[in-house]
Amino acid sequence: MTEHTPPPERPLPEEARARIRADLLAHAHEHRSTAPRWLVPAGAAAAVALVAGLSYWAISTSGSEPDGLPVTGGGRSSATPTPTPTPARDPLPSNEGTATPTPPGPDGTVEVGTRSCEEELEFVLDGAQPAGQVDETATFYVKGDRFALCDKLGSRTTVHQPLPLTPRIKDVSTYDVSSVLDGKKMVRVAGGIVPEGSFAYDVEYTFPDGHTERAKKVSDAEGRTWWYMAYSYADPGGNETEQPEIEVTVSLSGAQYTYPLAWGVDTCAQANHGC
Amino acid sequence: MAIDRDERELVDGLHGDDPGALAALFDRYGDRIYNHCFRHLADWAEAEDATSSVFLEVWRHRHRVQLHDGSALPWLYGVATNVCRNLGRSRRRYLRAVASLPEPAAEPDHAERVTDRLGSQARMRAVLDQVEALPAREREVLGLVAWAGLSYDQAAAALDVPVGTIRSRLSRARARLTDLTEEKHA
Lengths: 275, 186
Fold this sequence. Notes:
The complex is a heterodimer of chains A (about 280) and B (about 190).
Chain A: H1 14-30, H2 39-52, H3 55-60, H4 117-120, E1 129-135, E2 138-143, E3 146-151, E4 158-159, E5 163-164, E6 178-182, E7 185-193, E8 202-206, E9 212-214, E10 216-219, E11 225-234, E12 246-252, E13 255-261
Antiparallel strand pairs in A: 1-2, 2-3, 3-4, 3-5, 6-7, 7-11, 8-9, 8-12, 10-11, 12-13
Chain B: H1 7-15, H2 19-41, H3 44-60, H4 73-98, H5 112-131, H6 136-147, H7 152-159, H8 163-185
Helix pairs in contact in B: 1-2, 2-3, 2-4, 2-5, 3-4, 4-7, 6-8, 7-8
């Protein structure tokens, strides 16, 4: 049967793992139910009642789920038709479809981005330890060969996508910014580690309003140097992608590299909440 | 990086719209689903995309996630089997469509990792060619039990069929493969 034996298993490549994980988190945050779950079928039933005028029928069937579709109301549907392994006529779990809302558990009531950095790191870089503290609002956390920046600007706790401790200085993702809209202010934050042995390493960001913000540097007890940039400006509103791109200029040992940040791709570095 | 979190909690988290639970499930089972998809597709890059699709589907159907003997893995394998089966169909259609085109010249690449990657893909394609003669249902059981290491109970939960069906399908698959091998060597 050796000719029917597949090759040995292998782990997901780290880059793919990080990318998929970030995509999943972003998608899940974007497509989570905004209303309590018990309201979703009730709302759907009310809409049916309004259109059809069958209020009595609608109220009596408000907990039902047509044709095995999920009750999530999750926005876009996937392009891949993928039935679930459960039968289409599978009844809803016993706690679904009831008229009485189930009180959310203690975990379910927590809104992401409102907790401490340590708590918000749980699903991003669990167990990471504080390494370089920029100030009372921003700290770099390290676990193994990766780090994650956490800041508490813009009225939220924002954990950035973990990056390798050995920086890829010519990879634009090294300079991705997080974006948090705080009232009418847009808060952009980025940070990273200064490559060991580098001379004259500087990172500057030029924003759509023309302002250039230079990253500041802090050292930690391990002898590492971190760079950190935070800037907030009045959000002009409208379609962000029509604004001039944020531009990063990296100076390293006398050479300069400039990277435009693609809207949405390089401007959504947060890992624990949506953009 | 597996997060040590009770699976019941993970499923409760999914039922409660917690994106962290999805991430934790991915951390825990991403590698297994990746390899399961590879065994359907014989292409590591496509297996990455398929893995992503599987977990997006999990989120889409998060309120339906079920535990089997305290594990969400069988349910997850069920979703993965469906996703990869569909991707495999699309891919076969595509390959048939381009089959008449002249083959591109092989690009030399001396990186050991790439060679290894291509080697394992070629090997998996050869395995899939061998089992191609089996009905899809038997191939799926073979993939779950013989390749992914699921128990009969877990495979039954994944495919939503009785355990006896798993036993008989696997038995038929083995018999057919033995016949095929003998025919080939005769």
